[in-house]
Amino acid sequence: MAIFKGRSFILFPNNEVSSINIFENLIKNNGGKIIEYEHDITNASPDINYGYSHIIGLVNDSYLTLNNNKYEIYENNLLLNEMDLNKRKLWEFVKKNNITLVNISSVSFWLKVKKILINQDNIITITKDPGLHLEEISTSDSCNQSTSECETDIGDIINELVKCNSGSSKNLNSNLNNADNVGEVSSSGTLHGLKNEVIPQYNNEIEEDNKSISASSLARNTNGNELLIKTLDKLSKIHTIRGDEFRSRGYKLAKISVSKYPHKIKSAKEAQEKIPHIGASIAKKIETLLKTGKLPGLEIASKLESRKEYFSSCYGIGPVTAENWDSLQINSLNEALKRFPKIFQHDWSILFGWKYYEDWNKKIPRSECVKHMQIIKEELKLLDDSIECEIQGSFRRNRALCGDIDILFYKKECDDISDLYVVLEMLAIKLYKKKYIKCFLQLSKNINLVFDNEIQTTLQKAGISNNEFRSISLTNRPKLFLGAKLSTTIPEFDTSLYTINPEIDVKLHSEDKYMSSSVQANSVSHALEEYPCRRIDFFICKWSEIGASKLHYTGSGEFNREVRKIAISKGMKLTQHGLYQNDILLESFNEKRIFDLLDIPFIEPPDRQELKF
DNA sequence: CATCTT
DNA sequence: AAGATG
Q1: What is annotated as the active site (predicted)?
Q2: What does the pLDDT look like over A527-543, one tens digit per residue?
Q3: Is A461 among the catalytic positions?
């Protein structure tokens, strides 16, 4: 199908060869043209009526920020530093002629819906960078310190990783044998967001990919340092995934500098002396890289990284368990289940994390959040008209896509949590019986009554015996964690609005698929697009604590931590229950007043991503 | 104590 | 950061 016929595309930036190449091929295979050089444009004269409207600029998602629902790109951001001269010229052209810019993963979405859709959800505006400039970082003293610190540390980390994984050559071999599995995960990881950044595997596959890259793109980087550049890029990405932005940036800067260096690097000494951002530690790596052609531990490190990622992307599995399974060379949930059935029997909610693994790793469009809210509100109205509810979390922060749906319930002038919980439990059970709610993640006496069966069948499916001592909370809680799914029979269901999904899905290993809900769904019908199961949290708060509660549940988590730090620095304590000083409540009802007492200006929810004072 | 929630 | 849950 040639849905891109008559269209031309410019891809930005151009250094991320392995991921961009996928999109280049998708475009070419569907009748589109790729513009590589300025003369590609000047040769093709603009359309008399529509000018350059046949040209679309595509930007790699990792260079974008989401601001008030809209994608933005910062002019001075890494993007410019990632581009070579040809691409910079094209970038100037795009700016001058107001060429439409969209995020690159729209391409896969367009192929899915079989048409090109450009709207508020994927269009990008260019803005001035309010943050740090690369130049500032690289020339300031403080940064030089942090980069050199970074280098010694990463060396240690890699060494440790090698140590704990190459104790025997057997281990190394089993790692290599499992390359296929792990590769499957990382190659299908999403391009959007740090957590799921693709780590290209450093193996023959990549080499083959390079052969198929068009001659023009090959011509770009031929200073003979491709291996170094690729390795530095990989080191940078590993640290991004670990959440270590500083180290990641150290390697990224080194990578960019090496890319710009016009000669083939002959020795580590040469690199350290002549190229900026290369200190003793990176030089050492360059040395081994030049000598042996590879960096011991790197492949292992990235594989470990993606395996850990794979496990902890499952609800109920945290960093400790993921680390444990990782070090035991466990490659799949199924393997873990066979070795530790007790864990799954006790923490049965992991089985639902597994069942909905792929669904729960998908983002939810705002429009869908609203539909969930309608269903819940309608049912609540029948039970108790006086209880109100609002979506908090990323939805209140105005994100276009939300990770889950956080709903806060409260009742005017009511401070009795138990009272509210009773209604909420009834609400949840009714919605479960209506098959809107698919699963509960904790049990109360009443929830167990309706849900126990489902847990038992799920345990059976996993091949483990029932746990007679399943723990059931007897107290009335302030929260309920759920999985819920919109039915396709909802009248106003509209597939074209439903998913602007800028992600390549996080996928289960093939041997883990048998527990997944999507397996059954897919086998029933391919034509019928089903909604994914979504994570929904019900939270209850006292009327007197509604301000503190909203502040807490609106987040972001990072923002909360920063505000709470400020509270501490002023001798106060901030929780979801209120702002305290010496255990005396200062304020909990009025959200704005909490900001006042902390002496910070009120920050609107959309700006509560992170705080930088 | 690990995991989850923001 | 702080709290709830099993």
Answers
A1: 285
A2: 456 899 999 999 999 99
A3: no
Same domain, A568 and A500: no
Which long-range contacts does A600-605 make (Cβ < 8 Å, 24+ apart)? Answer: A600/A563, A600/A566, A603/A559, A605/A396, A605/A397, A605/A398, A605/A554
On whether both A17 and A67 belong to a single domain, the answer is yes
Q: Which of A487, A509, A540 is the last residue of a domain?
A: A540
A271/A593: higher pLDDT = A593
C1' of nucleotide B4: residue with nearest CA: A316
Catalytic residue among A255, A285, A363, A438: A285
What is the helix, strand, coil percentage profile of chain A, to 5? 50, 15, 35
The string of pLDDT tens digits covering residues A297-354 is: 666 556 556 889 999 999 999 999 999 999 999 999 999 999 999 999 999 999 999 9
C5 closest protein residue (CA to C1'): A442
Same-domain status, A76 and A189: no
A104 and A209 in a single domain? The answer is: no
Say how far A501 CA is from C4 C1', in Å: 33
Number of domains, chain A: 4
- Domain span at A288: 140-303
User: CA distances (Å), A325 to each of A109, A311, A334, in order?
Assistant: 35, 8, 12
